[in-house]
Amino acid sequence: MSQNSDGEIVHFDNVGLRYGTDREVLSDLSFTLYPGSFYFLTGASGAGKTSLLKLLYLAQRPSRGMIRMFGSDAITLSRERLPALRRRIGVVFQDFRLVPHLSAFDNVALPLRVAGVTERELEKPVRDMLDWVGLADRMQARPATLSGGEQQRVAIARAVIGRPEMLVADEPTGNVDPDMAVKLLRLFEALNGLGTTVVVATHDVHLLKKVPDSLIMRLDKGRLSDPTGALRYPPRRMPAMAGQRA
Amino acid sequence: MPSLVARSWRSLSATGETEIVPQARLSGPMPWVIAIMVAMTVIALAAGLALRNTAQAAAAELEGGVTVQVMEADPDARNAQAQNALTVLRELPQVASVRLVPREEVDQLIEPWLGEAGGGESASIPVPALLDARIDGKVTADAIEGIRAAVAEAAPAARVDAQSSWLKPVFDAIVSLQWLAAALVVLLSVALTAAVLLAARSALGTNRDTIEIVHLLGGTDAQIARVFQRSIGVDAAGGGLVGFALAAVVILFLGRRFAGLGAGMVDGGALGVTDWLLLALVPIVSVLLAMATARVTVLHALRKML
Ligand SMILES: Nc1ncnc2c1ncn2[C@@H]1O[C@H](COP(=O)(O)OP(=O)(O)O)[C@@H](O)[C@H]1O
Ligand SMILES: [Mg+2]
């Protein structure tokens, strides 16, 4: 609908996704994500949350519809230009996707190394980040020797280390105890406060209340409902938005 | 072994660019398989080159050489005829030089075949008298015929041969061996190529997840390909280096053994600088092949991802 790409970070227009020749797992998705907002994507297991996030972090092309990200048409964008776009997005995969033969430190350092940050520049931020998620003493541990919750924290540290413009997290608190879950949400909020747009997929409704200013997208059998109206009516509280409107 | 080489190689090739996935190594036995295949290929190639050199050296030496054998059972008649033939040959204008091969030398020549008892004056097997002549120009059939006609009267028991034809069976054997070596080199190259291809592919197969992760974190195709290409190249280089060193030891050892035989012909088989350069190409080409395979395989896998 809204054709102006100002004040939006992601825009979906009538997007559908099917795997192979199966029925569509996502249908008629039309929404806009605004910079600096904090979104929860909820829905029952199998509703299509992971599939929607895959579209968001550019791991999957939709079967139909239009997607615009950071002002670029993500459908027609050439392969060569996709990596630059991906570097602006931090991803916490549902299955973590840590590189098995790399230490926690090297896994967290990976996005910075990919982006060409030198060893000297990345050393301290990576240590600080691992310290923050409580893994200061497990920096040299391989993922296989870490517990599920520890792996999840490494995955989160890796997703946020590059201060992405958009953070996409798929059930990021699924394997940690409630205290750690809250702590991790604070990390996302802190990042959000710095201007990062956050999209957290979760089926845990208790989590939603923990971030008061969050906006909720609900997926039901591949279709999106908009319980707070946030997707249709752009929220006005974001500093980034305010700046752009001025 | 490969890790040591890899480490020193990496410190040499560390050009400031950080390696995003440093441990993407060829798994387990693959560097050793490459080492063995490189060693066998290099040895076969060295054998082929040595045989070629031998044939060339012998051919050059035998060029212009004519052998006259006096095949006479009676020693007195044989010696007389040999002296006559010597006189006749000395007077022929086309003969540059001629000498009667001394008895002891002939005995030495045939000793390996007949044993010490075979030789001696009183031996049961009569040994021909031998004249070694060298003529100007090529030894053609006409030239042989001319000499044959000239010595026929003075030494009816004389048999005249070009030295190359006298050695024809040896030459034929060398040529056959050369073909054998060439065939071995071809077969081993194919096997080495297959080993390198499989090694590179299996290394990438086990790292497919890693490739996808780096891809999703914004790694470019070229970046990812370069990482794998380089680390597989390092492993192949380790295997190739060890294989080449192994082969070099074997070649040098065998070379000494053959030199120890003292047979003049084999000396010509020594490998020259260009031969060694050719041998060094085997591990180098293996490394390049491994890297090219890694590159193609990675890029192919990446093309399937968005
Ligand atoms: N790679 C895939 N191939 C085929 N079907 C898939 C694939 N991924 C997910 N699905 C299907 O898509 C639907 C939505 O899955 P998913 O997006 O993982 O939901 P959620 O994350 O909400 O649990 C499910 O029915 C699932 O079986
Ligand atoms: Mg899911």
Automatic annotation (TrEMBL), chain A:
Name of this chain's protein: Cell division ATP-binding protein FtsE
UniProt cross-references to NCBIfam families, sorted A to Z: FtsE
Gene name of the record: ftsE
Membership in a protein family: Belongs to the ABC transporter superfamily.
Cellular component terms per the entry's GO annotation: plasma membrane
An annotated Gene Ontology molecular function: ATP binding
Assembly, per entry: Homodimer. Forms a membrane-associated complex with FtsX.
InterPro entries reported for this sequence: AAA+_ATPase, ABC_transporter-like_ATP-bd, ABC_transporter-like_CS, ABC_transpr_LolD-like, Cell_div_FtsE, MacB-like_ATP-bd, P-loop_NTPase
Lineage, top ranks: Bacteria, Pseudomonadati, Pseudomonadota, Alphaproteobacteria, Sphingomonadales
Biological process terms in GO annotation: cell division
Role, per record: Part of the ABC transporter FtsEX involved in cellular division. Important for assembly or stability of the septal ring.
Natural source organism: Novosphingobium marinum
One Pfam family cited in the UniProt record for this chain: ABC_tran
Topology relative to the membrane: Peripheral membrane protein
Subcellular locations according to the entry: Cell inner membrane; Cell membrane
Segments of this protein annotated with the region Disordered: 227-246
Alphabetical UniProt keywords: ATP-binding, Cell cycle, Cell division, Cell membrane, Membrane, Nucleotide-binding, Transport
Keyword ATP-binding found: yes
Domain ABC transporter: 10-245
